[in-house]
Amino acid sequence: MQTSQVTHVEMDNEVAKVKVAEMLVGRMNLQYQDKKTGDIKDEGATKPEVIMRQLCTRSGQVCSVSKYSVSHI
Fold first, then answer.
1. In the chain, where are the structural domains located?
2. Residue 13 — φ and ψ, nearest 5°?
3. Going residue by residue through the chain (73 aa), what tens digit of pLDDT does each one get?
4. Which residue of 34, 44, 45, 49 has the fewest CB atoms within a 10 Å radius of its CB?
5. Whose CA is closest to 67, among 8, 17, 10, 5?
6. In Å, how far from its chain's centre is CA 55?
7. Angle at 39 (CA atoms; ends 63, 54), nearest 5 degrees
8. Radius of gyration of the chain (CA)
């Protein structure tokens, strides 16, 4: 299974900088932000399974950068 597409490779001394156009989605974790304080919490008013059900991307799926506009990256 192909997990990424290399779009550019650049060598900087002994370091290879590789740009890819796709990535494999790993574990997805939700965090909630308190509207009043801005604090980040692990629990919120909406159950995680309700939010995860609405997402188009799933764990283990190849995610292409071309599917998203720049404002989402």
1. 6-67
2. 60, -115
3. 455 677 888 888 878 888 877 777 778 888 999 889 989 999 998 998 998 888 877 777 777 656 654 444 4
4. 45
5. 5
6. 12
7. 35
8. 17
pLDDT of residue 67: 61
Pair 48, 30: CB distance under 8 Å = yes
DSSP string of 2-65, one letter each residue = ----EEEEEEETTEEEEEESEEE-------EE-TTT--EES--SS-HHHHHHH-S--TT-EEEG
DSSP 70: G
